[in-house]
Amino acid sequence: VPFRVDVVTIFPEYLTPLRQSLLGKAAERGLVGVEVHDLRQWTDDLHRTVDDAPYGGGPGMVMKPEPWARALEAVRSPGTRLVVPTPAGRPFTQAVAAAWATEPGLVFACGRYEGIDQRVADWAAGAGPVSEVSIGDYVLAGGESAVLVMVEAVTRLLPGVVGNRESVEYDSHADGLLEGPSYTRPASWRGHEVPAVLLSGDHAAIARWRRAESLRRTAARRPDLLAALPDGALTDDDRAV
Ligand code: 6GU
């Protein structure tokens, strides 16, 4: 398959949604291959132990390194990016998703408890790129739901996965701005009207209006995104909005 996803987790059932929806159809069509692996198959004690108390003390448990090393030796081809979801990671963004979508595949290592012994990521960096990433400023119980998010964000950018290429090019975040509002019929609904410009047939006026709505919404909801735009991203018309 053109793009391969491997997920290692102690909760393989949590990843069953990967076989559904957009990604399930991409898998049926042979565009994406997804394999989910139970970390415990790489333990060797009776209790299939994957965690232990943290050195230095403190709450919670840390995932032991050896099962992870065996899992990655079995699952990861040399050079394949290892993604480690963690609230302490670098931000996962649309730009990161677009970059990963150009690679041959990804291996995800889902930690639970207080995370995975740091030496696993350090050791794994000897065999290819390692990305410790966060999907937002909140704390999840484990990386599994973050993997669902990241796999969906990456695979919908793969050639052929989303039917309408334009719907990807115009996505919120694709140009660093939020997408403005969308409307469909009826033109008048329960006392709320579709903006008249969208009914005008004036395509240049519609494009200008959409750009202005995108800028207004971004300024209101995500002023941090506006501030981060590169020099030259905003025209004089944009600044007049
Ligand atoms: Cl990627 N993992 C966990 N456990 N919590 C998170 C996260 C990831 N991103 C935000 N919170």
Ligands (ions, cofactors included): 6-chloroguanine
Alpha-carbon Rg, integer: 22 Å
Largest sheet: 5 strands, parallel
| Gap from first CA to last CA | 46 Å
Q: Number of helical segments?
A: 9
Topology, number of strands: 9
Structural class: alpha/beta
Q: Which range best describes the helical content: under 10%, 10-25%, 25-40%, 40-55%, 55-70% or over 70%?
A: 25-40%
Average pLDDT confidence is: 94
Percent in strands: 15-25%
Instruction: Output the strand order for the largest sheet.
Output: 2-1-6-5-7
Protein name: tRNA (guanine-N(1)-)-methyltransferase
GO molecular function: tRNA (guanine(37)-N1)-methyltransferase activity
Domain tRNA methyltransferase TRMD/TRM10-type: 4-226
Pfam family, one: tRNA_m1G_MT
What does it look like?
By secondary structure, the chain is α/β, with parallel strands linked by helices. It is built from 9 helices and 9 strands. Strands 2-1-6-5-7 form a 5-stranded parallel β-sheet, sandwiched between helices. A two-stranded antiparallel ribbon has the order 3-4. Helix 2 (65-75) runs parallel beside helix 4. The radius of gyration is 22 Å and the shape is elongated. The N and C termini lie far apart (46 Å). 25% of the residues are buried. The structure holds 6-chloroguanine (6GU). The site of 6-chloroguanine has 13 residues, from strand 5 and strand 7.
